[in-house]
Amino acid sequence: MSYAHELLNRAVSMNPAEFEFHQAVEEVMLSLQPLFRREPKYQKHRIGERVLEPERQIIFAVPWVDDKGDMRINRGFRIQFNSALGPYKGGFRFHPSVTQGTLKFLGFEQIFKNSLTGLAIGGAKGGCNFDPKGKSDSEIMHFCQSFMTELFRYLGPSTDVPAGDIGVGAREIGYMFGQYKRLTTRFEGVLTGKSFKWGGSLGRKEATGYGAVYMAENMLKVRKKALEGMVCTVSGSGNVATYTVEKLYHYGARPVTISDSQGMIHHPDGINLEVLKQVKEVERARLTRYAELCKDAVYVPVEQYPQGCNAVWSVPCQAAFPCATQNELNEDDAKQLLANGCILVCEGANMPSTLKAVDAFLAAGIAYAPGKAANAGGVATSQLEMAQNASMQQWSFETVDKKIKEIMLNIFTSMHDTAEEFGQPGNYVLGSNIAGFRKVADAMIEQGGV
Ligand code: NDP
């Protein structure tokens, strides 16, 4: 049995029922096989086994009182996965579906994503099975304060610097930062995604979506194509989706879809960005509200999606940007995209495509960028926020945006060249996994058995 398969079996047997974690491990480990064959030192130093085991996992109760005076309890997590390259870094997710397995898959991916950015950041992820939907501002604040009351002792600017993810934006980061400051009496760069008025970075809000579009443009450039004039489909309607849509317009493309967990919008003339921001960032409403405001847009509720498919991916497009959540694009969706002539898939979300969907993209030879490469603009800008906090500076939007662009180009070059080095040009799954892993693994060997 190959070393990669041994590792996969180990991950499955040691972490039963953590299916998303198994999926992430399978994708990474199987694509590392050519590296393991070429460099036996990784097996000798048991890097595979070590990288599969989080350095620390914190699981805790989050008690809080709702507006009716009822006591509620949620389960909080912080998975401090790997610190070979720097302090732990990775977002918090607040969503009812959050489990230890979800956060382990996200934390595991984060190790290699952060490595690909070329910046000094280790991998982590955290969150809670708390559902922010329908909660009042006061409930969100009390929940965030309770969450931080337990977690603050494990965080610090050179220990662990969390950020946002699904369900965690500037409002939640603000409440958590306030509580951290109260408990520690320190105003320091312990969270990223902060408001620009008190230590945040310009460009952080836009970074993940913009970065995904920069990645798409880089992939198209080597194929002597460009986004200009392309019809694009985008899923999700949160932070990543919104700023993917915005940047697609900057490049002269036409994004025609957005979605949320209850349905999707198809707007053939192009998504109205102003309305999208009003509905999602200001009113925090559902997409039915978008359809009310844009009469020429079509709303399709999930109950009307074709059996087992995501209706977003049945809309014909040349480029697709999954920006909602994991496993939102399956093999049938992938086949539909390919049949409709899609030539590029660039993942704003983490692991949005199932393993079989990824296989279909690779077999078809289209430009496919996995999330750990395509959405790394977000964490990279978080590190830029840390750098600004540490030097007590605030950079202009243009400075930050220029750096994101450079970082995305570096990531593209790294995965592109690594795929060529291993004789599989254009296979950016292999390219990104090997490039990300190799740097972490070498650092672990140099730091000894810690
Ligand atoms: P948001 O909370 O801002 O938005 C999430 C969007 O995805 C919403 O439209 C939400 O719809 C939809 N969604 C969530 N869960 C589901 C589901 N089960 N089925 C269908 N739709 C769903 O999150 P972000 O935009 O920040 O994150 C989106 C993705 O990007 C995630 O995979 C995240 O891990 C990844 N990512 C985010 C980064 C960031 O900087 N924010 C950085 C790198 C990756 P609804 O409102 O109905 O739940």
Which helices and strands occur, and which strands form pairs?
Layout: H1 3-14, H2 19-31, H3 33-38, H4 41-44, H5 47-52, E1 56-65, E2 71-82, E3 88-94, H6 100-116, E4 122-128, H7 137-151, E5 160-163, H8 170-184, H9 204-222, E6 231-234, H10 239-250, E7 254-255, E8 257-260, E9 263-266, H11 273-282, H12 287-293, E10 298-301, E11 319-321, H13 331-339, E12 344-346, H14 355-364, E13 367-369, H15 371-374, H16 376-390, H17 397-421, H18 428-447
Parallel strand pairs: 3-4, 3-5, 6-7, 6-11, 11-12, 12-13
Antiparallel strand pairs: 1-2, 2-4, 8-9, 9-10
Helix pairs in contact: 1-2, 2-6, 2-18, 6-18, 7-8, 9-10, 9-16, 9-17, 11-12, 13-14, 16-17, 17-18
This protein binds NADPH dihydro-nicotinamide-adenine-dinucleotide phosphate (NDP).
NADPH dihydro-nicotinamide-adenine-dinucleotide phosphate is lined by residues 164-167, 208, 236-241, 260-262, 323-325, 328, 348-350, 375, 378.
Summarize this, please?
This protein folds into two domains: 184 residues, Leucine Dehydrogenase, chain A, domain 1 (Rossmann fold, 3-Layer(aba) Sandwich); 160 residues, Rossmann fold. It has 18 helices and 13 strands. Bound molecules: NADPH dihydro-nicotinamide-adenine-dinucleotide phosphate.
Please give a handful of descriptors for the protein shown:
binds NADPH dihydro-nicotinamide-adenine-dinucleotide phosphate, 5-stranded parallel sheet, Rossmann fold, 5-stranded mixed sheet, 450 residues, single chain, 2 domains
